[in-house]
Please model this.
Amino acid sequence: MALSYEYFQAINNGVGSNSLVEIDIAESKRRLRQQLQGSNHYDPEATRNGVTQGLVVTASDSMHKYRVEALPDEELYAGDLIYTHDHYWIVIETRVASPYQTIGIMWLCNHLFRWQNGTSKIIERWGVLDSGVYSSTKDGDKTVETADKQYKIYLPRDNDTIKLYVDKRFATEVIYDQSLKEILNVYAITGVDPTSRSYGNNSHLLVLNARSDDYVAGRDNLTERICDYIAPTGAPYIDEPLIITGSTKIPIGSSRMYAVDCEDPVWFCDYPSGVHMYQFEDGSMMLKIDYNEELVGESFMVEATDGMSDGSLIVEVID
Model:
């Protein structure tokens, strides 16, 4: 059946909740979800901001840019951190006008940024340090390298990254000077842009301008790869393990909550297929087990870290 102008007008302008248009859209979403989940490009174990969410991931003409599709009625925003294909990616832009699903472009993260926000606590975020290769519109994404050029840094905007400021310095890798002494490759922030690339509600992409800067011995820590390093004060630091609270046994078809005695934990889990992990804003985590008798007897490790200490717990699936 051909789609009329009135059909598209109804989609754009909205109609009653029981209208034929909304029923048609709901049915189209159901079929689309089934098609996407049956695609060879569908990754059911992908995570978005640390929470499992199946996504369709498709290669593009660029080696480090992929198309990402959320299932109908599921979220995807610029600034989201995606883990799929054994790598981290950051969503740079999304198309938000479709009534069926959200589709975006994500870039392959090339650096784990490490810094401190005025205390000895070390903060880590995956992101992109772009010399122009990612953002180039030229064929092959090739750029000419020049001295003292501007770089861009792309990070998720959150409670830690919003505290980054002009002149804040980042280190990437260890390099050598003319005397063959180890130094850090350093970049300094020259501009903070939280809005120009964040299109649509709930977008949270942070773009920083940066320029090459000098390594300062005594201020910058080679081992930690952190500029203007703040050492722990007071009593000597003891790396005590974090304590994870929660059940060590989960029946199939059920879920269990887990918590850890620290702020802003990052959770890891080497769970098998059929086990799903969800992390919440308060730092807690939930494991959900599919109702599948083949999972009975499976055991796996749950881990949490706050950047300085780690904790672990062995969980077993039971009948």
